Amino acid sequence: MSELYHCVPEPSFLRVWTPDAASRDQPPPEDPHDPGTWRMFSFARRVSDQLLRQGRARETREEYLRFAKRFDEYFATWWADGPPDQKYRMGYPVIRTCGAAHLRLWREYLVSLESFSPRTINKHVATVEAILSWAADEELRDQSPHLKALPSKGAAPKFYLTLEQLSAIYQACDVAEWPTVGRRGLLGYSPADGWRAALVLWFSYGLRTQELIKHESGKRSLRCRNLVWQRETPAQEGHAESPYGWLWYVPQKQGRVKPRPLALPLSDVAAAHLRLIRCRDKRPCATLFDWPLSPDQFYPQWRRILEAAGVRPKRDPSTGQQPQYDVKHLRKTCTTHYNNHAAGIAKWITGHSSLRPDEARDSQVSDRHYDCPEQRVLRAVLSLPQPEAFRTALSRVPCLTLEARSSGKQLALF
Fold first, then answer.
1. Is residue 18 predicted with pLDDT exceeding 80?
2. Between vectors from CA 216 to CA 215 and to CA 222, what angle results, nearest 5°?
3. Cβ-based neighbours of 215, under 8 Å, separated by 6 or more
4. Global pTM?
5. Which residues, at least 6 apart from 189, have a Cβ–Cβ distance to it below 8 Å?
């Protein structure tokens, strides 16, 4: 009877994985029949499929996968190179064994990168907690660990840059040393020209950071097909004409609720800088800024440029701290300068056309269903005061205007 008892295999959830000498630095193997042994990314794919069936937004599903992959990448390195006593005391964080100590260790790593705000770090941790909560609901673990969120401000200060500060940053781009190589080979322009072109486009159109330059997988950035080199607007309902061409794209957070593209005229300054960094890959689907996917290079390079420019916000009188400008403050800068130039026009350029609830009902109906602001947008973009340094590119790119052609005729500037 005892021999029969010992022939019964031990359930997998009772087995504790311990590495032998050959696999000491490798993460534990996954059992395809036991999701409790899966790593975070593998189980996140399962959660993503369920979110899809629930009709959740694609951005939410991609966020689950991106944060889970980042979690696994960190712990794979930690398991290979971390302190032996720590990693063998805590164990490798698979779905069944991941605990608060693992989340705390990962959060400390994210903080040490100095690339994420406390709010973004809290979002990373909360996503992993949600994945573990799914596992608990499927009875793959007892409960999901939870960390107290890092303190963060509810809303970022409305920092904006003056034209003089923008000129200083533009000139300081000379110190940029990254990137020189893109995801498909040499970029064909200097790092300084690349950062200057990005600065001009962020200021001119209020693009979100990764709408212009993608440094993380799963994000969508501008492609060559988003530049329309013709005089007449590509908008189906429009009739405006721009002498320099058009930017035509769907803002990052509006694809699901407002899928119609924005049609924005190119200014002479924007067109000049786009020509200076012209795409070497002529395919319409080619990425406009084909920079490497590396937030660890992107943000330190931005801070280096700011340091060389000597541009910082004022010191907080209550705390004595002096923050730095982030790339996202260029979106606030764009909105502020456009509204100072032509009141109320910025929402049509940045894509933030959702109206305040305290506005009159008839104003909301008019803006959403009847008013076509293309002529006002055209005048605002072409006449917006530009930082003096931005105009230095005009001498490097002669003959910017497009020839008058029939509507719909594509003109090759590159």
1. no
2. 60
3. 291, 292, 293, 294, 295, 297, 298
4. 0.66
5. 276, 277
